[in-house]
Design goal:
Blueprint (H helix, E strand, L loop, with lengths): L7 H4 L4 H17 L3 H19 L15 H20 L5 H25 L10 H10 L5 E9 L2 H8 L1 H18 L5 E6 L2 E7 L6 H16 L3 E3 L2 E3 L3 E9 L2 H16 L5 E2 L29 H11 L5 E6 L4 E4 L1 H7 L3 H4 L14 H12 L4 E8 L5 E13 L2 E11 L17 E12 L5 E12 L2 E2 L2 H10 L3 H17 L9 E6 L1 H4 L2 H12 L7 E5 L7 H10 L4 E7 L5 H8 L3 E4 L1 H7 L7 H15 L3 E5 L4 H9 L4 E3 L7 E2 L11
Parallel strand pairs: 6-7, 14-16, 16-17, 17-18, 18-19, 19-20, 20-21
Antiparallel strand pairs: 1-3, 1-6, 2-3, 4-5, 8-9, 8-12, 10-11, 11-12, 13-14, 13-21, 13-22, 14-15
Helix pairs in contact: 2-3, 2-4, 4-5, 7-8, 15-16, 16-18, 19-20
């Protein structure tokens, strides 16, 4: 830094020359202690801070990388005090320099007081830090008596790992706020670390065992009985606590902390106070089990249950262990939270304690048929939580065998994460399901004219509309994917037949599952039904990436339906897309919407545009046309057209519109 960058007000002072030297020396000394990677950026910020202070403009400690933090400002000013002290406080420096030095000392003192205050308060919860607790202890009268309570949130680490630190921080703020609502200014809440808190209460209300017990019970109910809101969801958490009465100090805190440990060993969500002596057993002795002569001993799974619960404790996936008699012998915290029942309530019960009694019986028959063969079952079961809420569980059940004998079952359980409960099913996912259909235009990019439409299914159960992805996913889990697909195709044919005719200049793109094509009899029936409303030459059957047909099956389709057009859907998402495209050479290729989205995010020579340009050139060489799905902006439209893509589909080109009967004089879409 050159001397002329120092504010003129400082240079014009009585000690201007000496101050310039001190100013530059302090800045160099401070910068030397910083990493080289941030030195240049911090030097500019440091100039602004010192110049503003010298000019009497205060401390500009802003936010962001371009500014200094309060701690950095304090360190810079502290060094300036060390450098400026001898130069500015000497009698020869003059009155102006001494006033500058006094103002600097006052600024450093104010910054230091603010830094101390911030170090004593937890920024997240507003509770005191350990340093704040120590300062509070020094302020209260010696030997002050009252209540000390140490508590933490049960399974908070699992909650944090499962839902993220943002959700965990939200819970901590709400828990601290609930405590602050019920204590007065004589009390202090301390965050000891993570989810562990210390509460110290003074005053006449905390001098008797009865009054302290009432307060602790009321606070525990306040922390546990009302759910915590995180986003649009609510969660209930248990709280384990130990509490003691007596002279406030480290000895009393340690005794309360010992009782917190005892509370957690007794099953969590417990309160342990001074009435329980520490030499009492931690829990009742285990109930003796009658000896069973059956082989193998592992059938009881006692050894495995203990290991499983220890290993599963931190899992975010809900897990349960069941013995061969169908009794739950181990669960993890994630499973308890998912089903809304505690460990003690679940152990020894059949997993159907969580059932809603509405899962179609064929599902259970298929389940047990696979498990009895020693095979893993994957599917969906309709369950009911302890509070009566119904939900669909996606489960994976794996038999555990010792030798040739099955001794138990592992199960991993996941919520289908539905925004609303699915209506009950009777015997099949198609029972009681009706369909509406929407047609979304597919537009030629060069001319802007529609060349066809994609038929989009909108399933409903009674008055309840269901998201198509969710409905088909449930059908797949219930091993009814083909039945659901055929039902949708038949319903589409019936809806189209009511239009009274299809324009032969328009294509109709229809999605079909790969599993459906593997059952030719059912697909032929659906195809014949479609052909009563739409000429075969207008149909394009789209095969999606999920469960996509392997290469020999594409060739078989060509031989079986030589005059039917095919489209490879969602290109760019499936396994083996490129090789399947080379071998089968479908009439149409539909680019996945994620690939379309990237076209406008990269320069025209970027990886995604270059890939699409090469793909389009190759496709045109072999008579295949390319459709870009998910065109949502004008930029995506322009880039796709520039790259030679034939057609596009998306909200920018035209939203899906429900299929309705034509009015008089109309002859179809």
């Amino acid at each position: 830094m050159e001397p002329e960058t120092v504010p003129r007000s400082a240079l014009d002072s009585e000690a201007g020359g000496e101050w310039t030297r001190v100013y530059l020396g302090t800045l160099r000394r401070w910068l030397a202690g910083l990493p080289e990677s941030v030195r240049e950026r911090r030097e500019a910020a440091a100039r602004r801070v010192l110049e503003a202070w010298i000019a009497g403009q205060g401390v500009p400690a802003g936010e962001g990388e371009a500014e200094l933090s309060p701690a950095e400002v304090l360190e810079l000013y502290r060094l300036l005090m060390e450098e400026a002290g001898p130069a500015l406080s000497a009698p020869a420096a003059g009155g102006a320099a001494q006033r500058l030095y006094a103002a600097l000392a006052a600024t450093v003192e104010a910054l230091w007081a603010e830094a101390v205050r911030q170090s004593q308060v937890d920024a997240l919860t507003g509770a005191a830090t350990r340093r704040g607790y120590e300062a509070w202890l020094r302020q209260i009268p010696p030997a002050s008596e009252g209540l000390v309570m140490v508590f933490d949130l049960d399974d908070f680490k699992w909650f944090n790992d499962t839902f993220g630190h943002w959700a965990g921080d939200t819970i901590l703020r709400q828990a601290a706020a609930r405590v602050h609502e019920v204590v007065d200014e004589l009390s202090l809440l301390v965050r000891l670390g993570g989810d562990e808190f210390l509460l110290c209460c003074l005053g006449p209300d905390f001098q008797s065992l009865e009054s302290c017990q009432r307060f602790v019970d009321a606070l525990h109910r306040r922390l546990t009985q009302e759910s915590y809101r995180v986003g649009r969801r609510r969660y209930r958490l248990g709280v384990s606590a130990g509490w003691m009465m007596g002279p406030i100090g480290e000895d009393l805190v340690q005794r309360a902390d010992d009782r917190l440990l005892l509370a957690k060993r007794q099953g969590k969500n417990h309160l342990v106070g001074p009435q329980q002596k520490m030499d009492q057993p931690l829990a009742p002795p285990p109930r003796a089990r009658p000896r069973r002569p059956s082989w193998p001993p592992a059938a009881e799974l006692g050894w495995l249950a203990e290991a499983a619960e220890a290993l599963w404790a931190g899992w975010s996936t809900a897990a349960v262990l069941v013995n061969r008699r169908g009794e739950i012998v181990a669960v993890n915290p994630a499973y308890q939270a998912l089903v809304g029942r505690g460990r003690e309530e679940l152990l020894g019960q059949n997993p159907r304690i969580n059932g809603a009694g509405a899962t179609p019986p064929p599902v259970y028959r298929r389940l047990w048929a696979r498990l009895q063969k020693g095979k893993t079952w994957r599917g969906a079961l309709e369950n009911q939580r302890a509070d009566g809420e119904r939900w669909w569980a996606e489960e994976e059940i794996i038999p555990i065998a010792v030798g040739s004998q099955v001794v138990g079952y592992w199960a991993a359980v996941r919520d289908l994460e539905a925004p609303a409960p699915l209506p009950p099913l009777e015997a099949s996912v198609t029972d009681g399901t009706s369909f509406q259909f929407a047609l979304q235009p597919i537009v030629e990019l060069a001319s802007g004219n529609p060349i066809g439409f994609e038929a989009l299914a909108r399933p409903r159960r009674g008055p309840h509309p269901l998201a198509p992805r969710r409905w088909f996913r449930l059908a797949r889990l219930l091993e009814d994917e083909v039945g659901a697909d055929l039902a949708a195709l038949q319903a589409l044919a019936q809806s189209l037949a009511q239009l009274g005719g299809w324009l032969e200049t328009r294509r109709l793109f229809v999605n079909v599952k790969a599993a459906t094509l593997a059952r030719p009899a059912g697909f032929r029936r659906a195809l014949r039904a479609l052909e009563t409303a739409v000429p075969r030459r207008c149909l394009v059957m789209e095969i999606g990436e999920r469960g996509a047909l392997r290469y020999p099956h594409w060739e078989r389709l060509r031989r079986t339906y030589p005059d039917l057009a095919w489209a490879q859907d969602d290109l760019g998402r499936g396994d083996g897309d490129l090789l399947r495209m080379v071998i089968s050479r479908p009439e149409w290729i539909k680019l996945d919407r994620e690939l379309t989205r990237r076209l406008a995010q990269e320069p025209i020579g970027g990886p995604a545009p270059a890939l699409v340009a090469a793909l389009t050139t190759w496709a045109h060489r072999y008579g295949t046309r390319v459709v870009a799905e998910g065109i949502e902006t004008e930029a995506e439209f322009r880039v796709a057209r520039q790259l030679g893509v034939d057609a596009g589909q998306g909200f920018w080109l035209g939203p899906p519109r429900l299929l309705e009967l034509p009015s008089a004089g109309e002859s179809g879409p």
